[in-house]
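Figure 6 in text form: structure in, sequence out.
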């Protein structure tokens, strides 16, 4: 009886503890991961890191680490939530539950009126944005809002 050669990669044959250390080095950063409208290009950044697109086993092992090990910042300029909402919609099923820090930075090109800083945003677009955050499964304790100029 002949046996077929093992076709799995050398990487997935490494001990799980070592793979987790490699994932941590490759997927987490001390910097923030920004979801932003960059110079009007309306990017849905950040894309899923290439490492998480290599195979199902690596994705299953490392996805939680990517979302739990990074701080995500969604910049909202002048109340425009479309970019951040598109990013929320692009999260794979269950990914949002692993996010431990999502900061929403509300910025404005104009001066805010006195009393505006620190107030919660209102209106139907913001209610929908909040609903999208809930639908993505992001825990409310992980979400903070910062107002600025």
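Output sequence:
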């Amino acid at each position: 009886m002949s046996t077929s050669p093992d076709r799995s990669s050398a990487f997935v044959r490494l001990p799980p503890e070592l793979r987790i250390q490699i994932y941590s080095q490759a997927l987490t950063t001390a910097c923030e991961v920004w979801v932003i409208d960059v110079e009007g290009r309306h990017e849905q950044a950040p894309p899923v890191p290439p490492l998480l697109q290599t195979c199902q086993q690596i994705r299953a092992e490392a996805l939680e680490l990517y979302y739990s090990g990074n701080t995500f910042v969604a910049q909202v300029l002048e109340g425009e939530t479309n970019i951040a909402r598109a990013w929320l919609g692009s999260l794979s099923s269950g990914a949002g539950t692993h996010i431990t820090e999502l900061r929403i930075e509300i910025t404005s090109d104009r001066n805010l009126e006195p009393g505006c800083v620190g107030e919660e945003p209102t209106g139907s677009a913001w209610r929908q944005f909040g609903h999208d955050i809930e639908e993505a499964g992001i825990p409310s304790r992980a979400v903070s809002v910062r107002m600025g100029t």
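Caption detail: The chain has one domain: 16-147.
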